[in-house]
Every structure is written in structure tokens, then in C-alpha cells.
Amino acid sequence: MSRQSQSSRSLYRRWGWVLPWLVLLAPAAAHKVQTSGDIGGTQHIEPNDTPRAGEPSLTWFALTRQGGEVLPLEACDCSLAVYKQPYTEQDAPILESALEPISTEGYQNIPSAEITFPEVGAYEVVLRGQPRAEGDFQPFELQFDVTVAVGTSRSPEAGAIAPASAPDANSPVAIPSTVHPLMTWQPWVVGLAVIGVAGLGILAWQVKGKRQP
User: Fold this and answer.
1) pLDDT tens-digit profile of 61-88?
2) Which CATH class, in words, describes the domain spanning 29-148?
């Protein structure tokens, strides 16, 4: 066996056990994690932590105590506020959103909200919480930086002319008349001609009868 093969086996025995953990932790690494007091929080914004301006984005927070126990929304008096960066402590949030429980990615009844960021730019999402039962955990404040991208839906440009709509298939359609004006009185002419010919025929028949001995 070559030295290179022996070296590869040695590395695998030493570090191979790490690979499964890397695979399991890869999705969580995409989320944003913060800690405050004895509470840790993971924020995720659908889809792929990339919100778009003017579009509602489902945002959820996986809260855990020290030791990994999940902190459900019913145990926390939580509030959510969004600030446009940069901002100061005296600035009011641009929006506040009510929190609803959600179960996702193995977490049960964790806080969630639909946030619509008004425009492109940098924001800070702040989740504050206090225990509903006194002494259950320390009050916390988790701050998450968020970058908002351009939205996919845009309003029509000013001055744009809307295309003409097609006529309704059930609506009556005016058909231009193809009847010549002379055709409106032509039957009278034909009638008079017939009467005239008939009269001449009768007159000729009477004259012929008088001439016979």
C-alpha cells in the first residue's frame, strides 16, 4: 500500500466523523443567529433569507433556552419591530407586526410574522421578549440585520398607454350595409314595367280583334 493511500485513510479516520455534522448544520448556517441573556434566536425569512421590497415575507424565529430547549410563543410576551438603517434609539420603528405561532423545520409554535419591507436597503429586525411566567427566563432583545432586494412586481410606467381591449364575443357587431340606394326603389320600376307591358299586350289584342272580319 502506498504512503499516499495510508495518509488518506489516516485523515478519514481522524476527521471523517465531522462530515455528517457539516451536512446537517449546513441549512442552519444559512439562518441568522443571535443571543441575548439565556435565550438564543435564529431568524429565517422566506425565501432563502432574501426579502424583496413591497412583497410580504414570512419571517420566523426559533427561540431556544440554554441547553437547546425550544421556547414557544405562548411562554413569551414577544414584540417585533423593524427599523430602517441607520437609526438611533430615539427613532420610532417604521413598522411593528403581530406575532403568530408557527411550526416549521422541527420547531413547534415558534414566533412568526409577515413583514413587508417598503423599499430596497438595509434594515434591522428587533425581537424583544419577556417571560409570561415570572423568572422563567431573562428578558431579551435580539437584533437581526436584513438586506432587502428589488421586488419582482413593478407598477406600470407613467404615461404608458394600455392596449385596446378586444371586443366582447357576445356583444352585437355593426355590419356595414352593402345595399345600393337604387335597390330600395328598383321593385317599383319593375312593377310599373310589368304593368306597362301587360297594358300594351291587352291593347294590341283588342286592336287585332277589331280588324278581323
Assistant:
1) 999 999 999 999 999 999 999 999 999 9
2) mainly beta
